[in-house]
Write a structure and sequence with these properties.
The chain is about 45% helix and about 15% strand. With about 260 residues, it is an alpha/beta fold. Bound molecules: NADP nicotinamide-adenine-dinucleotide phosphate.
């Protein structure tokens, strides 16, 4: 299937590694010109060069901390000037820490809010006028499968991502008339550094991954490119009639029927 992304410009956040990098690679492989952002400039440049090498398409790296308003504004200005348009926005960031509700203070709540909820509003608000100008657009937010079924210890993540789901639904209403779609993609367990860091230190990593996969119907942890494939589809022309949805990529792990 040709996703018709050849003339499109995509902005992908939190993209030096993990899910963001996989999405940037998939969109670039489909022909999009891609602008990637995250904090560590050296890592980001390395990733941009790596993707360009694989796909042969232009990739621009612009460092940004998505939890900081002034950095987001400068980032979107540079991104919009890079190719003169923005058609696709992947809202993504690092994840907040896992712990019990009783262990989080105001500072940690504020950090999670800035990183995982306010960043989505800020980036979307600045990118939307560029999409309205061209008469179409795709906004895709990375959330978590914890918005579908309870996941212990994920109170910060779940609270912020439920906010993103609500925001996307309202934005789908408001920006539908401009042919701009807004959807959420909810990863279950996808093997990235974030997940590697949560494996028990006293067990062989391969065994620990197998243990984590036992409760997943497909019997394994997901690969970043499997999530990226859904994002690339949602970014395509073929997905023009899909908006306001939240789709999980979790190997069947969510125990919710909805
Ligand atoms: N992997 C999963 O199974 C899974 C499941 C559910 C939800 N998620 C969520 O999906 C998102 C991505 O996770 P991942 O697994 O890809 O994590 P990862 O492998 O740890 O990658 C995180 C990426 O985010 C960037 N980043 C972190 N903080 C940032 C900030 N303030 N501003 C800009 N970029 C930032 C990092 O680069 P720098 O450090 O250089 O900025 C890096 O590129 C997270 O929100 C995570 O909670 C993941």
């Amino acid at each position: 299937m040709d996703l018709k992304l050849n003339n499109k410009v995509a902005v992908v956040l939190a993209a030096s590694k993990g899910l963001g990098k996989a999405v940037a690679t998939a969109l670039s492989a489909e022909g999009a010109r891609v602008i990637i952002g995250s904090r560590d400039e050296a890592e980001l440049n390395k990733t941009a060069a790596e993707i360009k090498q694989i796909t042969g398409n232009e990739v621009i790296a612009i460092p940004v901390d998505v939890s900081k308003a002034e950095e987001i504004e400068a980032f979107v200005n540079k991104a919009a000037n890079a190719f003169g348009r923005i058609d696709i926005l992947l809202n993504n960031a690092g994840g907040p820490p896992f712990d019990k509700f009783e262990n989080f203070d105001d500072e940690q709540w504020q950090k999670a809010f800035d990183l995982n909820l306010l960043s989505v509003a800020r980036l979307s608000r600045l990118v939307l006028p560029h999409m309205q100008k061209t008469g179409s657009g795709r906004i895709i937010n990375i959330v978590s499968v914890s918005v579908k079924a309870v996941l212990g210890g994920s109170v910060l993540s779940t609270t912020m991502r439920m906010g993103v789901v609500g925001m996307a639904k309202l934005m789908a209403d408001e920006f539908g008339p401009y042919n701009i779609t807004i959807n959420n993609v909810a990863p279950g367990l996808i093997l990235t550094d974030r997940i590697k860091h949560t494996l028990p230190k006293d067990v062989d990593p391969e065994q620990a991954i197998k243990d984590r996969a036992k409760s997943i119907p497909l019997g394994r942890i997901g690969k970043p490119e499997e999530l990226a494939a859904l994002v690339a589809f949602l970014a395509s022309e073929q997905a023009a009639y899909i908006t306001g949805t939240t789709i999980q990529v979790d190997g069947g792990a969510s125990r919710s029927i909805y």
